[in-house]
Amino acid sequence: MDRHPEYWFPAKRFGWGWGPPRVWQGWLVLAIFFALVLAGAVTLLPTHGPGVFVGYTLVLCIALVIVCAIKGEPPDANWRSRR
């Protein structure tokens, strides 16, 4: 059995956080995220205005960061620089 889990999102080489997805599950999460943002823009902006849409998008972004934290490679504690 593989002792190294397959991360959906690799740690960024520079900076802090995660890079583009490495496997299809990560790409699916990203596609769902963008589809939900687009659906919110089409439905919430005309009916409820920008404030509700910004709140909705903030919730989606927090959910994406949580998925990245759970299924992504642990980022370094420090900011990676190009030095």
Task: Name the descriptors.
57% helix; mainly alpha
Question: How is the topology of this model organized?
Answer:
Blueprint: H1 24-48, H2 50-71
Helix pairs in contact: 1-2
Major beta sheet, specifics? Answer: none
Given as residue ranges, the uncertain stretches (5+ residues, pLDDT < 50) are none
Shape: elongated
Approximately how much beta-strand content do the residues carry?
under 5%
Please tell me the overall pLDDT.
87
SSE succession: HH
| Termini Cα gap | 37 Å
- Which structural class should the secondary elements be placed in? mainly alpha
Number of strands: 0
Q: Count the helices. How many?
A: 2
Radius of gyration: 16 Å
Query: Approximately how much helix is present in the residues?
Result: 55-70%
Architecture overview:
Helices cover 57% and strands 0% of the residues. Helix 1 packs antiparallel against helix 2 (50-71). With 83 residues, the chain is mainly α. The protein has a domain at 24-71. The relative contact order is 0.22. The longest helix is centred in the middle third of the chain and has 25 residues, at 24-48. The protein is built from two helices and no strands. The model has no long low-confidence stretch (mean pLDDT 87).
